UniProtKB/TrEMBL annotation:
Pfam families: Gtr1_RagA (PF04670). This is Ras-related GTP-binding protein. It comes from Durusdinium trenchii. The keyword Nucleotide-binding applies. Belongs to the GTR/RAG GTP-binding protein family. The keyword Nucleotide-binding applies.
Length: 319
């Protein structure tokens, strides 16, 4: 079996990790996730191969195993952390009042995994930051700070040995897609080169922001080097969703349309333009006002230049 990158999802039972994987990668409606059965007793693995950039194995690590104080007993499951590129995603239920058990188990997973692969990186999803309890961004950041400090304190001397990123997420908004975009980008070795190409595209067309989307999952696999504004990302992801829905009604879907393109003019004057650039891959460009976008031919030319200049173009954008 070809050694492709892995994303290993870990968390206590009912923390939401299974619903995350199904909402992000299997198009499950967030509201339907409430009917999922919890309490996995064995690992579940499935492949994600949408295009030549987004190819990985997603591993759902059983929460029941994490309830055991002695993780080292489960040697058969230890191999999941070894070999090839791998990111470990630790899901912590933000609705839990104390976070003590979740943080303690996260610490054990980090220590257990690092003994088997010192090159691992970790992403902590502070999940379910929705509802009345998390009515403001300040409340979400307060929760993130508490969990960050508790985990850092638990790890003590180990904190210098690993890289940990924290994200506040919910399946009921775009935060989970934005967080997973950053996670999968770590498994794309050519990401820096793609960023350079997208930055050149931005510089030559007076646009505000540009993303390279996987149109199946709505994850952005790369963007220009400017900071990502979540509001722009939400608008672009919604555009991808809408274009796919329309394409499915009138054709075979965006996945099968090799020349898909669409333009949205927003009420605030901004312009969003989508251009298909490969199998299940599309560029979405953001222009802050229609005054800055007046030449379709120039944009089309520069996107073709992007496709020609992109690293290993025949792999990324096969004709």
């Amino acid at each position: 079996m070809e050694d492709i990158p892995k994303v290993v999802m870990c968390g206590l039972p009912r923390c939401g990790k299974t619903s995350i994987s199904k909402v992000v990668f299997q198009k499950l409606s967030p509201h339907e996730s409430m009917f999922l059965e919890g309490g996995l007793t064995k690992m579940e693995t499935f492949s994600v191969c949408h295009n030549h950039l987004l190819r990985l194995r997603l591993v759902d690590f059983p929460g029941a195993i994490l309830c055991d104080e002695n993780l080292s007993l489960h040697q058969n499951d230890a191999t999941v952390f070894g070999g090839g590129d791998c990111v470990v995603v630790l899901v912590i239920d933000a609705q839990d009042e104390s976070y003590a058990t979740s943080v303690s188990r996260a610490k054990k997973v980090i220590e257990f995994a690092l003994k088997r692969n010192s090159k691992l990186t970790f992403d902590v999803l502070i999940h379910k930051v929705d509802g009345a309890k998390f009515h403001s961004e300040e409340r979400k950041m307060e929760c993130q700070t508490i969990i960050h400090d508790k985990l850092t304190e638990e790890l003590a001397d180990k904190v210098q040995e690993c890289t940990i990123h924290f994200h506040c997420t919910s399946i009921y908004d775009h935060s989970i897609f934005e967080a997973f975009s950053k996670i999968v980008q770590k498994l794309i070795p050519e990401k820096p080169l793609l960023e350079n190409c997208l930055q050149s595209l931005l510089d030559s067309t007076r646009m505000e922001k540009v993303y390279l989307f996987d149109v199946v999952s709505k994850l952005y696999l790369a963007s220009d080097r400017q900071p990502v504004d979540l509001q722009w990302y939400e608008l672009c992801a919604d555009m991808v969703d809408l274009v796919i829905d329309i394409a499915c009604i009138y054709g075979n879907g965006l996945e099968e349309n090799k020349d898909a393109a669409c333009e949205f003019n927003l009420q605030n004057g901004a312009v969003l333009i989508l251009k298909e650039v490969g199998h299940c891959l599309a560029i979405v460009c953001v222009f802050k006002s229609d005054d800055t976008f007046d030449k379709h031919e120039l944009l089309d030319h520069n996107i073709e230049v992007f496709k020609e200049d992109s690293p290993r173009k025949r792999v990324f954008f096969p004709r």
